[in-house]
Amino acid sequence: MWRCLALLCTAVLLSLVPAARVDAVGANGGSDCATCTILVGLVEQLAQVYDEDAEAALERFCSFLPEQLQPPCKAGAAVFVPYLVDMLYKKETPDVACHALGFCKVDPGHQACHLFPVPKGGMDAALKRIQPIYRENSKTRRDQGLPKICNVPGIKEICNIIDRAFGPHLPSADFDKDGFSTVKTLRGTSWRGKDCNDFDKRHHPGARPIDGDVVTDSNCNGIFGFDSEKNLPYEEHLCKDTDQRGMVLLSDSIGAHFHLPPQWFEAQSLSSSVFKDLFFILENEIDWPELSTYTGHMNNTFGQIVEGPVDSIYMRLRERNLCNHRDYQNIGVNGARSTTVNRTTVKTMMRNQTSDYPALVIYALFGNDVCNGHPDTLSHMTTPKVFRANVLDTFQYLDEVLPAGSHVGVSGLANGSLLFANVHDKIHPIGKLRNDVTYTDFYTYLNCLETSPCSGWLTANSTLRELTTKRAFELNDVLKNIIATKVYKNFNLTYIDVTITDVIARWEAQGGHGWQLIEPVDGFHINQRADALYAEMIWEMLEKEHPDLLGKVNPNNDKIKQLFGDQGGY
């Protein structure tokens, strides 16, 4: 699902689609149809905003992209411009135009899907009307080898970047293969603390110092050298016995902090400035771990495309003990559920039981065990029995690799029914120009294409929303039972009973509205403002009820600041 999500979002061929390759997803054209409809909708709206024809609007759109993507974008546009100009001149809707272009269809036993308002006379009449154009365009696409959206120039280049980014969840630039990197993207320092020596795997964040780090900084926390007054290495003087620990997250897209800039969906907001970080965003899988609840570690410098403060569990752990500098790992994966975390994701965590410090690991899977895009969504949810087996296997693996004295905090699944409740009647960014697409329209469209990230919660069917929440709470009961009955050698288990529902309740008590904390594009995640508030509330709970998870306050923090400044930054 999420590779397609990335394709749709970043090329602004955007939408929300389920897991699998773009070539074989959904119904009625699936992600190809959604991509085409969003793009054509934006081009048509650009034409209105700038009072120009479709060809000029498409040229304008390509000019907004980074320079490397402009030539292939224009090449791809040239294939479809004649048909697109004709469709929009005749006032056909983007949904109808994409049927004419061949990216949308009506599968047997299905009804035609539409994101935008139904054309006069209905969809069936419109689809009959455009049949001659469809037949001509289909021949053109076959002749030019463009059967799927990822074959189209401009989009093909985006697909290639996404394929590279959405690979193994380890840094791609990692010479010593210790799981840490010196570059930001492709699972680098945005996700894990910066490596201080990428040619020696003994040197990495979270390591116990080698020979007191008198000569080199082997654990990358910026503290090294020898204190001649104390006749001790600085590491020993400033960090020894201070309860050092790292922050490790095992999670899904909420933990990784998935975010799509709403400006990419608003024709009136499109510009080269909103796409200037496109490659960075793509290579980080459209996630923002460096700003997230759990591993945020930098100021928000992204301007209008990410709005809100930054706060995180890692930042507060570091503030509590500066010896924890750079010791973070965000192993959040878009679409992760208990099965994939157990089989693959947890194996990418880097911790050595003997040569690394303990860690605070947070296990937080918010919804994918009950979320999928299938029409029969209930039958594809994880059962309590399977969920229990997955979690127990994961915890057993953690016990085999975590240093003694570690802690595992467990967050339960969210009550995702609050998503529809808060935004269903609000206008989606793609409908902002004319106020003609609500979130209910958006959710219904994705469900029609069978590409919804969560057809059980993102639906107008209240019964289905309630059943999805019921299963989520059943899985939470499994987690609570495991915590109450299981004991592990190298870590203790703690249930983090702070929910997204609690975050929204606090925000509303402060005078806000729930919808202000939900991602405006996908309507499925919490936004930057909510991430920061969530970190604050989790920390408050841990500090009050489980301070042992956080370690002691280091009395040497001021001395560390005085001697080592920002400790090398990030």
Structure characterization notes:
- This protein is globular.
- Helix 1 crosses helix 8, helix 2 packs across helix 3 and helix 4 crosses helix 5.
- The relative contact order is 0.12.
- Helix 14 links the parallel strand 5 and strand 6.
- 39% of the residues lie in helices and 6% in strands.
- The N terminus is likely disordered.
- It is mainly alpha-helical.
- A five-stranded parallel β-sheet has the order 4-3-5-6-7, with helices on both faces. A two-stranded antiparallel sheet has the order 1-2.
Question: What is this structure, in a nutshell?
Answer:
The protein has 20 helices and 7 strands. The chain is mainly α and 570 residues long. The strands form 2 sheets. Strands 4-3-5-6-7 form a 5-stranded parallel β-sheet, with helices on both faces.
Which features characterize this protein?
20 helices; disordered N terminus; 570 residues; 7 strands; five-stranded parallel beta sheet; mainly alpha
Q: Any chance you could write out the topology, listing elements then pairs?
A:
Blueprint: H1 2-10, H2 30-49, H3 54-64, H4 70-89, H5 94-100, H6 123-129, H7 131-143, H8 155-165, E1 226-227, E2 232-233, H9 234-239, E3 246-251, H10 253-256, H11 278-283, H12 313-320, E4 328-332, H13 338-343, E5 359-364, H14 384-401, E6 406-411, H15 417-423, H16 439-448, H17 462-485, E7 491-495, H18 500-509, H19 528-545, H20 557-564
Parallel strand pairs: 3-4, 3-5, 5-6, 6-7
Antiparallel strand pairs: 1-2
Helix pairs in contact: 1-8, 2-3, 2-5, 3-4, 4-5, 14-17, 18-19
